[in-house]
Amino acid sequence: MAKKGKQPKQRQHPSHKGFWAEHLVTILLASVLFGLHVRTLPAGLGFGDEGEMAAAAATFGLTHPPGFPGYLIPAWLWTKLFFFLEPVKALHLFSAVSASLLMIATTRLFRASAPTTRSATVLAPLAAFATMALPLVRDYAVAAEVYIWQWLWLVLFLEQFVRYRDGQRPDHWRNLWICWAVAVTIHPFSLFFGVIPALHVLLTRPNHILRLVRGMLPAACLSLLYLVPVLAAQRDQAFIWPHGTGLKGWIDYFLAAEYRDRLVEQGDVVTLLQHQIAAVLPEVFGGGPGWLLAAAGVATVVLLVRGVRPKPARGLAITLGVAFISILPLVSHGLANSLDRDSYFFALFLSAAWLIFLGIIQFYKVSRFVEAPWGTVASVALSIAAVLWLHLDQPVTHNRYASFLAESIRGDLPRDTLVLVKDDASFFSLKYEQDALDRRPDLVVLHLDLLHKHLDHYRARHPELDLPEQAPESLGAWPRLLVAAEAGKRTIVWFGDASAVAGIAGTHPIGSVWWLGGPKYRTDSFLDQYLALPERERQAFDSDATARAILARIVRDLALFSLRHGNPELAYAILDQWLELHPTDQQTLALKGLLLIRDKKLEDAERVMAPIREADEPEEAAIHAQAVLLQARGLDQERWNWLHRHLRTVRRSIQLAEDYVAACVALGKFDVALDYLDRHPKAARLIPLRGDVLFHSGEAQAAIELLEGYQRQRPADARVLEKLILFHTLQGNDQQQVKWIQEFGRRFPNHPANRRYDELIMQKALQN
């Protein structure tokens, strides 16, 4: 028989305080928020993961690891419900609806943690409304991404936890684990938040371990949703992310093994941790706001564990919670280049808004003001006006850049053309239009990165292609290999950097792609396609950094192609035409400056690159171009000063690292160069630069031994062998020089440097 004891006091929440205060204000603000988001819904597909998510949701397919079934299933149902809309537009609407629901859930969270006063009841939706106006939330509220949907369920989870902590009702305990489990199926990053209730129970009621296990049972059942991608991948007509074959392939898929392998390339665990810290700290503590957000996260941990007794246990809970907040970004793969950081920052922004709300309701005058009916109306009106002022400066987007990109690549290509790409933007744009909109399904689109890692998948998926059984050693070998294998069978085009297909016979630009090994079949200019767009769409392109960068890269490739084929006037004309439309495009300015430096027009280069010198944060290519200009003018000290001034950017780039080390060597600052290389997050890849420093500092033998050891570790790196040949040439060691030239020819038979080395050996023979 259950022992009768004093029942815990049930907390009365403001849900019983009247319809006006409880519901109408929240519904009104959520409706205004929905209207603002609908107003700025994109006109078409965006970049990032949108093409992949939209294609997978429309066809019930398979996204990148680990599948995100908690988003994919409702998104697929939503596209079926709104069948009259294009799938990506339906998903944009889904995010806008989710953002309004997120505002309502945030209101419930704020109310659950506040006293049951009328002022708290009114201020909670106002604080939630202000939180939803943050740029981070606003951007994802109109994007086909998982994050708004994930944040909604995490906020519901926190609300149920607060209600359980204060009321100890079993239904809240069950509900919080269900919400947490749904959030985990949406994005595995949500796993970490399960520490909060588990920590609370273990420290306050250690005898409730059975309740903890029982509460997690629904979560365990919901985790079976991760089997949905396995079923989805069995359908040929769906968008399928490449994955390994067999049981091991699926295990690697769910554990995101390719991301793990990418990180392992950084080196040992210490190097990996250094790289992660170097990426995280500038993001989290890059200034005042970073410190404030971190403080808000710490304060929220204190708030959540306030019911822990005794004090030592509370201290332990706070310590563990703070450690949990601190290490979150470190376990995210490559936070600096990952959208996972947005989940982390939203948690901190929510914490800050939560604490501000709890602080405001403590002020007596504020409470009296909003409790009055006219005060409520005034507060709501002021909040709506402030958010409208912030939102109305956001232009109504007419951006169709991804669709334009797909159209410019696809054009009127012959049937069954093989399209090779190496960037996610073009790949997802084409696959979305193929799989979701059934446009040109005859084209075979291959992402070279994915092909290189998942060759078995592509061999099974495309038996009509003559793919090799083993992938070549380097990714760059694929275009040449595929041209040789498919010659005469199908047309092959390449969308990407022109240097990747340099040397393939018959290569020439057509529109925005490169025709590989075949006759030219059309002559329309990519710039003509771009200029033919309506001005409104062109302005929308220019307002998006990703779209502008892709379009500018195509223009630069066309200019470089003209230059390689002996037409520098056309190269200058193409760059001038683009710069007339985009006078501040730093990378194009840098390219034009480098061409002028090559032609010995240093004064013109100085004038062209003036905007680069005036920029607060010049881009990597711009910093490199200015360094080359200073070197050409013989200003080594100014070159070193310029690079040292932008050292934070220099540390992120291999090219700029080479520039900085060269500047140090020119000035005899060998210790500075070695210290820089020791501290660089990618020190393992910069060993050839260390060899340069050692050689020029008089330690030639140490430099040669270092490079000989390095080339054994990385036999596919041609630059290392070139340095060895150079060092032996400068040392006058003819025997070793010939040895490494022969080794270079054996490893890289098609390298253009072989002709130069053959001429060098011939000269030596004639001299002897």
Automatic annotation (TrEMBL):
Keywords: Membrane, Transmembrane, Transmembrane helix. The chain crosses the membrane at residues 20-38, 90-110, 122-141, 147-164, 176-203, 215-233, 313-331, 343-361, 373-392. The keyword Hydrolase does not apply. Signal peptide: none annotated. This is DUF2723 domain-containing protein.
